[in-house]
Fold this sequence. Notes:
alpha/beta; eight-stranded mixed sheet; DapC_beta/gammaproteobac
Amino acid sequence: MNPNLEKLQAYPFEKLKRLFAGITPNPDYSAISLGLGEPKHATPQLIKDALVANLNGLANYPSTNGIEGLRVAISNWLAQRYNIPALDAATQILPVNGSREALFSLAQAVIDPSKNSHGAPIVMCPNPFYQIYEGAAYLAGAEPYFANANPAKNFAPDFSQIPEAIWQRAQLLYVCSPGNPTGAVLTLNDWKELFELSDRYNFVIAADECYSEIYFGETAPLGSLAAARALGRNDYPRLITLSSLSKRSNVPGMRSGFVAGDANIIKQFLLYRTYHGGAMSPSIQAASIAAWNDEQHVIENRALYVKKFSQVTPVLQEVLDVALPDAAFYLWAGVDKHLQISDTEFAQGLYRDYNVTVLPGSFLAREAHGINPGSNRIRMALVAEVEECMEAAQRIAAYTRQLMQAQ
């Protein structure tokens, strides 16, 4: 077996299962989970109709680069969403089976273990982070290096303190904007810094933007492709953007997304995926076209999140260190400011006393530069309906007040 498999840590939800082992939740309360970031809103009927109408596609082998109609639909959506010229659907866009598998497989295609003479290649990751980044690095023969979230930058990763010797070994940088779990959105200045570093050290940027359509203000989050165009990087050198229909359109089970950007990388990634077996079902492609071509269901979906966050956040702000994020569907809350309790202890007690599941922030991060930036924080995924999220918030507030009174 590949010895790098031994470097992989248990997924956060496996750690959560072990954390809760032997705990019996209070039977007076129904179970509510804010732990898993799985969309719970209804799948739009137009997507289901398109899928059913194209079931004959199951009789055909799909091509790895997808049908032209899907690539054109994605190109049109990108142009409208980010106010940029349409990307070349033939050379700059590639459908993928959800952004998760593409985030992983991109590292396998990009990393060259023989390229560095000063040690293993580096894959730069935000911290806290989506654990696929770390696993992709290890299994590509690289080492992950973590840029800790900076509370002063609304928990965006701070790349300014990374040593020159590390940048010299960097071959791939993952960045998530809007961020998981913090909801932070990178600014144009942030992107400018990353592009300049990419130019200087010749690494690829993988911009994970799967939460881009869930936001709370009037202005949609800036995307990496739009930032590149604004800075005159019209061919998107060393930039690959990844997005998905899972959160935008409430279809995580469809496993449908895309990568877009640098045509040279797309060409090589297509070659890799031809062997990797990354072709999307023709039926799923048809349903994906319907999804990318319709914006009304996205507006309605976003309104549900705005309603939830506007009601839940004030309740939790009374007892926890939490603020409305820039975007995404998570609340990233501090629990130790007044409570003197760890994130894992908080999660255990909340589950035991009120049957609410949240994810300890330390499970989403690694100790780096002397700290685990997720420690003493919790992630709450507000994916259920408004009433259930409000019930969870009220139970969390009651549990937190219970802890305060016990001190």
